[in-house]
Write a structure and sequence with these properties.
Number of strands: 13
Distance between the termini: 8 Å
Strand content: 25-35%
Number of helices: 5
Mean pLDDT: 96
Low-confidence stretches: none
Strand order of the largest sheet: 2-3-6-7-5-4
Radius of gyration: 18 Å
Helix content: 10-25%
Length: about 220
């Protein structure tokens, strides 16, 4: 089985500075429209401002795009990512204003492919049932359609499920270098080859952890 890693924004203030998240969004309305469930046409045009005590890194942490899954990255990082096989995605133009009033070109990498969840091996994956934010125990899900049926019966909108252990079906594209499994898992997973490229090119602002939840 391939080795996978979790890609996330670094929290270390020695790396990203004392202000976290590192940027304020200047286009709140555009940011709040972003959701992980579909592609966008036209694409949002995003503007950010670096906070006073934040360090400018290759990827910057923003919390405004709460409904979307992705990363705010510079051109150097985008050029690296474009060489790899990423799940269905788009790049949204973004700008970052520094404290010196410089306007820098950044991009929001927007990840959106809910149907990728159907390529899980549901029989062998382990799911945890949630009511609101409370874990109730394990639940056997037969498919993504089964999950949606259970959601449709939930009049309180309190039901949810979270992936605890991941088993991949034979249909899963083992050549993918970046992917996620919404709505069961908010982690963004990357391949070892992409991990190596990020590290070898000195991309600053990411934290990479070994994913231990794959069967």
């Amino acid at each position: 089985m391939n080795n996978y890693y979790i890609l996330k924004n670094d929290l270390d203030d020695k790396i990203v500075g004392k202000d976290y998240p590192q940027v304020d969004c200047l286009t709140m309305h555009q940011a709040h429209l972003i959701t992980s469930w579909h592609l966008f046409d036209p694409k949002p045009n995003l503007k950010f401002k670096l906070k006073k005590r934040a360090v400018l890194t290759d990827t910057l942490k923003d919390i405004t795009i709460g409904g979307g899954t992705g990363f705010l990255i510079n051109s150097k990082t985008k050029d690296i990512f474009k060489k790899f096989n990423i799940m269905r995605h788009q790049y949204f133009d973004a700008s970052v204003e520094t404290q010196k009033a410089e306007i820098l070109a950044y991009f929001w990498l927007h990840l959106t492919e809910p149907q990728l969840t159907e390529e899980l091996d549901f029989k062998n994956s382990i799911f945890l049932e949630k009511k609101w934010a409370t874990i109730k125990g394990t639940i056997q899900l037969k498919s993504y359609e089964h999950y949606k049926e259970l959601k449709a019966k939930d009049t309180e909108a309190s039901f949810g499920a979270r992936l605890d252990k991941i088993a991949l079906s034979d249909n899963f594209d083992s050549e993918l270098d970046m992917f996620t499994f919404l709505p069961f898992d908010n982690n963004v997973y990357i391949s070892e080859r992409l991990k190596n490229a990020i590290e070898e090119n000195g991309i600053i602002g990411f934290k990479i952890e070994k994913a231990t939840n794959f069967f």
